[in-house]
UniProtKB/TrEMBL annotation:
<dbReference type="InterPro" id="IPR041117">
    <property type="entry name" value="SoxA_A3"/>
</dbReference>
<keyword id="KW-0560">Oxidoreductase</keyword>
<dbReference type="Pfam" id="PF08669">
    <property type="entry name" value="GCV_T_C"/>
</dbReference>
<dbReference type="InterPro" id="IPR006222">
    <property type="entry name" value="GCVT_N"/>
</dbReference>
<feature type="domain" description="GCVT N-terminal">
    <location>
        <begin position="597"/>
        <end position="864"/>
    </location>
</feature>
<dbReference type="InterPro" id="IPR023753">
    <property type="entry name" value="FAD/NAD-binding_dom"/>
</dbReference>
<dbReference type="InterPro" id="IPR029043">
    <property type="entry name" value="GcvT/YgfZ_C"/>
</dbReference>
<dbReference type="Pfam" id="PF17806">
    <property type="entry name" value="SO_alpha_A3"/>
</dbReference>
<dbReference type="InterPro" id="IPR041854">
    <property type="entry name" value="BFD-like_2Fe2S-bd_dom_sf"/>
</dbReference>
<dbReference type="InterPro" id="IPR027266">
    <property type="entry name" value="TrmE/GcvT-like"/>
</dbReference>
<feature type="domain" description="Aminomethyltransferase C-terminal">
    <location>
        <begin position="886"/>
        <end position="972"/>
    </location>
</feature>
<dbReference type="InterPro" id="IPR028896">
    <property type="entry name" value="GcvT/YgfZ/DmdA"/>
</dbReference>
<feature type="domain" description="SoxA A3">
    <location>
        <begin position="499"/>
        <end position="583"/>
    </location>
</feature>
<protein>
    <submittedName>
        <fullName>Sarcosine oxidase subunit alpha</fullName>
    </submittedName>
</protein>
<dbReference type="Pfam" id="PF01571">
    <property type="entry name" value="GCV_T"/>
</dbReference>
<dbReference type="InterPro" id="IPR042204">
    <property type="entry name" value="2Fe-2S-bd_N"/>
</dbReference>
<dbReference type="Pfam" id="PF07992">
    <property type="entry name" value="Pyr_redox_2"/>
</dbReference>
Amino acid sequence: MQVSGSRLPSGGRIDREKPIGFSFDGRSYSGYAGDTLASALLANGVSLVGRSFKYHRPRGIFSAGIEEPNALVTFGHDGRRDPNVPATMVELVEGLEAQSQNRWPSLGFDVLAVNQVFAPLLSAGFYYKTFMGPTRRAWLFYEHFIRRAAGLGKASLQPDPDRYDTEYAFTDVAIIGSGPTGLAAALSVARSGARVTLIEQDGAIGGQMLSQPSEGAAADWLAAAGADIAGFPQITVRTRSTAFGLYDGNTIGIVERRDHLGPEPGQTRQLLVLLKAQSIIFTTGAIERPLLFADNDRPGVMLASAASTYLNRFAVACGRTIVVATNNDSAYATARDFAAAGSKVTVLDARPASPLADSARKHGITVLQDHQLLAAHGSPVSAVAFRSGSSEARLSCDLLLTSAGWTPSVHLTSHLGIRPIYDARIGGFVPGSFAAGHFGAGALMGDYTTAEAIERGAAAGLGAACFCGRKAEPHAIPTPDLDEGIARDLPALAVPRRGKVFVDLQTDVTTSDIALSDREGFRSVEHLKRYTTLGMGTDQGKTSNVHAIALMALARDQSIEQTGTTTFRPPYSPVAVGVLAGRSIHGHFKPIRRTPLHDWHLRRGAEMIEVGLWKRPLFYPEHGPDVGAAAIAEMKLVRSAVGLVDVSTLGKIEVAGPDALTFLDRLYVNNLGKLQVGKGRYCVMLRDDGIVFDEGVVIRLAEERFFLTTSTMKAADVQSWMEFLAQTAWPDLRVHITSVTDEWAMLALAGPRSRDVLAAAFPDIATDDESLPKMAVVTGTFAGEVLRIQRVSYSGERAYEIHVGSRRGAALADHLMAAGQPVGVEPYGVDAMGALRIEKGFAAGSEIDGTTTLDDIGLGGLAKKSGGFAGAVLSRRPTLTNPDRRRLVGLQCLDAGRQLRTGSILFSEGAPQRGHGIGHVTAVTFSPETDKQIGLALLSGGPERIGETMLATFPVRNEMVRVRVVSPVFVDPDGARIDA
């Protein structure tokens, strides 16, 4: 690795009493507390830190902040591997491991640097034009090699062991940025008594003030301001916190980094903060732009402000013979700082004159006016070429610093759709306007001096306090006496006509790429961005966008205002997916719902499974060692004796009101007009397009009160559909709809001995066939709670559903188990329950899949013959009544030892096995009743094909099984068992 730069013996804001060891590409180094990885590398003489995206050119540290385009590293290892992180934003901690990226076999010798030889062939959009053939699938061949040749870091494939949390916070005034503008605003607001949250992406407050000498007027002012901030308890300071997005309702998305705390067990690595503010002050500052010149990407080329940061904050002199190339006055402060540190400094000023030139010369700085920088030479830089008039010359150096003005950070102010406007005075874009309660000040608005920043920040603070209803009075805030240069009234952008001039360093976009984009018709800045990939890297073009817009404007012979800017969208800087997910991973990825009997199932050793959002018992190991054996045993139990199953997950909705019956009669396809109190009916509802939506049971509890159940998966959708119809289609109906899913525990007793258990459990309730015929309901009490018993079957056997308040669910299960002990009652799980319904041929979720009609699943006879219902008209469309539609049938597997699989595609014997076939298998189980593997399917022509032999193919596993089409009802087709 090349060497440049050294740690100064004193100065800076680092803690020299706390040395820190770290490694880069396997080599050990040391730094100090307060260092970033970038400053520590520079202090150790490391200038080569990465390779470029496309050409694999050597790259060095370019900036000192979040705008860094070159020094992207991967730090950590295994599950803590974090790629594409700017070294400028990584705080040094003991044992930090970092690796360079996008190089092979090593950073110093990268084989793919040969791409530079083929650079003329790798212009903007080359992949669109080069890799089009010779066949349509050729890209699949090319892609592997392209990904190897270009790219950034690689993420880990191992689970992340760290924790990410989410916090919801509230404040009166949020201030984004803690430079002198933000500090002045915070003090102004705090004096009104309002709550203030000060958000700073750095590890310390101060902004650019931290890049001033650690002793002097700036340091004294910052120390005093920090003490004042600490004296206001209503000011919350959030450091290491990047505001990455502004959202509706004055909500700010913030990521707080806690990597500096180290990988402690249970430590939150990053925190997502969703901050709700009444008013927002944007003091986000500005980012320095580089000059454009040939080979401007060499190691040893750096932004002038970045070099000042490393010198003054981290006590690192990045060079000893320095050229500062500029077109504005702000870079003169950098020149003075390095001259004071003992470096030999030459300023190349593109302007004919500067008011700071004479002062600079008094500091021993060579100032060359009207000199344009042409090129950098050497890697790292050893000389620069420049032009004055018609003559060209070279100048030796070991560090080249450039400054072409500053770009206000308008990203957050644009996230809600307010586009920035161009300010020719500063050569950059500023916020176009502000929403009510939003304020901006400081460098964001082009106010570049510290005095302007403090004055405008205090004024913005007063405005925000007043907006929040606070009484605020102006309060003078002292201003440090600083010798500053102003980056205004910049000369026109000068671009050398020869050599490779990079505009976007991260994605290797050059001036010639922008010219090519114009020639090929990609002239909108949005098209330019996507055709060249300019601004699409992790830095989002923070140092390149304005130059790109200016070059496009020159190519089109129009103003920058006419050319416009790209759309700024969140996030402002990359956000890890882990921090967005927070703790919503694995079992916490989505909400988990547990039935009132959840603990009861666990006590019996049930193997639980997620069904939608619910945890349900899949099977009980007491019935078999695995789900296959246990489910068969549980099915036999229900068919021969009696089983108990938890059906509390069914959706439960009460509908009440004078027009409740009318509402339900319109909602369901069934004729409910004659439904008596104390009776229930199996009902089906359609979507408005005539497709089956859901099925369930409607019970009439009273004249104007109904209780209905829905399928487990559709409960919320059905509730929403009902509310929609009540409020939009039939607003004249007096009806009230209430979800009571969580209010009731529901158990089903199924099997030929189910009534025996019921009679033993509730001797005071009449449960004989005359008192409780099929679909009837009786009520009573259990443990002081209302109890309902309904005779309804989902298994094909005599069965009863028992409803009780949720808190009595487990007690009810114990009571039924005790009462049924003489007849051998046992619980069974959802696998057996699903298999029982397949044997009986009941259409359920896998058949009611959003494509089937009533006739498709054999329920056409339920539809009322007169009177309308939701979806009735469109259900009669020719497409939905075509006899060739796929309709419900049963399947028997004919190949012994072969497995029929759900999802298999059905083909007629002898037909070509291509495409989607003529049907598909919706559900499969082994049937103890038939001693065969059976299934349900939706088959074109349906019932007319009963008796035919089909081929069921499963392409995923390259399997094929012969099946016979049969009736979907495998068990008790006459219903004698249910009626028994």
